Amino acid sequence: MTFLSVRLVMAVFHCLSDKQQGYLFTFITMCIWGAFGLMARMNAYWHIQIWDVLLLRFGIAAAVLLPILWWKKDYQFLFDFKLLILALVGSIGYCIFVYNGFFYAPVAHGVVFLNGTFPLFAALIGYIMLRSPIDRQTGIGLSIIVMTLLLMTISIIIGDGYFGRGDLMFIASGLCWGLFSVLLRKWSFSAWHIMCGVAIWSAVIYSLIYAIFITPAFHTATPTHLAIQGIFHGIFVVIIATLTYAEAVAKIGIFKAGSIANLAPFIASIIAVPLLGEMLNTTLVMGLIGMAIGALQPWRWFIGR
């Protein structure tokens, strides 16, 4: 019965046009990315140590991917030192900051200080490293982001908000992801090789760090919660979302795919209010609106760019 259901789903999928498939892949990516902030925030509620979650994430992803690479006889690319750098910056560095950010700060803070600053860092680093020009539309979006950050900072200073350790972590993770994105443009790898190389090298490096410096605290959480976090972060985030986003970009383009998928964190910040009991004050609402406009640049939809 399950096999017939899978065949039926695949038959329906192949009846869709490339554009329709692209939007479907984008929707799947958006669901996973949206759930990421919520699931990462749940670590604080489920009393799961961040370092243990990272071990589960990297270990499970590597355990799934290594046998596939061995079966495909496609593993020589792993010895390219560039993948090691990508793993350190875009996986280990990014994850350490972003998971700690969600542990100490609400989901909405992550949307503002991570999703807002990432395009800013990516544009600046791209200009410095690759001499990539910043076009007029991107410049307008970045200006909106900068103004939003300044207004939020002023609001925080006068006491209508709270800026803490988690927010600093989000900004650091935005810097890591911006650098990672620029390096991906600089170094040409396929989506499959990036995913496998980054996941496996992350597992190797982080396992050594964990074994030497970290005291496991799995006993503070229930096995069910650990299994949920491990499967979600190790398989859905690292493997499935990477592949669906790559397919979405290939079928409908990076701007449309990125714009739609990047709506996920903003939706997650709203869901976190009833689900996790988090609050949205005036500062955060204005920050969300400003970051959404600056990062997504919705006017591009109307000018065909």
Classification by helices and strands? mainly alpha
Distance between the termini: 45 Å
The general outline is globular
Q: Which spans have pLDDT < 50 for at least 5 consecutive residues?
A: none
- The chain-level mean pLDDT equals 82
Number of helices: 14
Order of helices and strands: HHHHHHHHHHHHHH
Helix content: over 70%
Rg = 20 Å
The count of β-strands is 0
Largest sheet: none
Q: How much beta, percentage-wise?
A: under 5%
Key terms:
305 residues, mainly alpha, 0% strand, globular
What this model shows, in words?
The protein has 14 helices and no strands. The chain has helices at residues 2-15, 18-46, 50-72, 81-104, 107-115, 117-130, 136-157, 165-186, 191-213, 223-252, 254-261, 264-276, 282-296, 300-303. It is an all-alpha fold and 305 residues long. Helix content is 82%, strand content 0%. Helix 2 packs antiparallel against helix 10 and helix 2 runs parallel beside helix 11 (254-261). The chain is globular.
Short description:
The protein contains 14 helices and no strands. The protein has 305 residues and is an all-alpha fold. It is globular, with a radius of gyration of 20 Å.
Write the layout of secondary structure elements.
Layout: H1 2-15, H2 18-46, H3 50-72, H4 81-104, H5 107-115, H6 117-130, H7 136-157, H8 165-186, H9 191-213, H10 223-252, H11 254-261, H12 264-276, H13 282-296, H14 300-303
Helix pairs in contact: 2-4, 2-10, 2-11, 2-12, 3-9, 3-10, 4-8, 4-9, 5-8, 5-12, 5-13, 6-7, 6-8, 7-13, 9-10, 10-11
Pfam family, one: EamA
Transmembrane segments: 21-42, 48-71, 83-105, 111-130, 142-162, 168-184, 191-214, 226-246, 258-277, 283-303
Keywords: Membrane, Transmembrane, Transmembrane helix
